Amino acid sequence: MDRALELNPKLGRSHFFKAMIQKADGDYDAALHSLEITASMYPRDRVVLNQMARILFLKREYKKALAVLERVCMVDPEDLQMHYLSMLCYRGLGAEQDASREETLFRRYKAEESSQAITGKRRLVSPEDNNERQMIHDHESIQLAPAPRPPMRPSPGVSQISAAGGAQ
User: Fold this and answer.
1) Secondary structure class of 110 (helix, strand, coil)
2) Across residues 137-166, what is the average pLDDT?
3) What are residue 86's phi and psi, to 5 degrees?
4) Is residue 66 within 8 Å of 91, Cβ to Cβ?
């Protein structure tokens, strides 16, 4: 990881994965620092912000975690991880009414298990539908034809002969 950052210190993905290693090692402060670097490059990245909030939760800094989760809510008010972590933070603060509201929202946006069985066959035979069902997915792009260029017009006051490169 250090080698990747040495080659390109502006690569946000490297800082993110370094943070995940630091988090797994229990070095929460270093992980937060690495995530803050990534967040400075991608301020609306929900995954990065949720990871920052998760680490703050693990450090029992619930109010700071909730402030980060508010940023996630600005990007996607239906983010499942954000509502779950908010519920845990509010419980940690003893704010049961707020925790209950977040639990309700978490359950509302959580995928219903029984619907997976209903949609399963369709997703097996249709890779496109299965791709759309994934939380993080790619869309295949097609090669676009170059846009037609408008014909060049001579500047006002220039004769057609001189605009075409001929003598006047």
Assistant:
1) coil
2) 60
3) -60, -45
4) no
pLDDT digits (tens, 9 = 90+) for 88-144: 999 999 999 999 999 999 988 887 666 677 777 777 787 777 766 665 656 566 666
Q: Give the total residue count for the chain.
A: 168
Q: Are 4 and 14 in contact (CB under 8 A)?
A: yes
The H or E element containing residue 78 is: none
The string over 71-106, giving b where at least 16 C-beta atoms fall within 10 Å of a residue's C-beta and e elsewhere, is bbbeeeeebbbbbbbbbbbbbbeeeeebbeebbebb
Which pTM was predicted? 0.65
Contacts of the segment 79-84: beta carbons below 8 A, 24+ positions apart = 79/46, 79/50, 79/109, 80/106, 80/109, 80/110, 81/46, 81/50, 82/46, 82/50, 82/53, 83/109
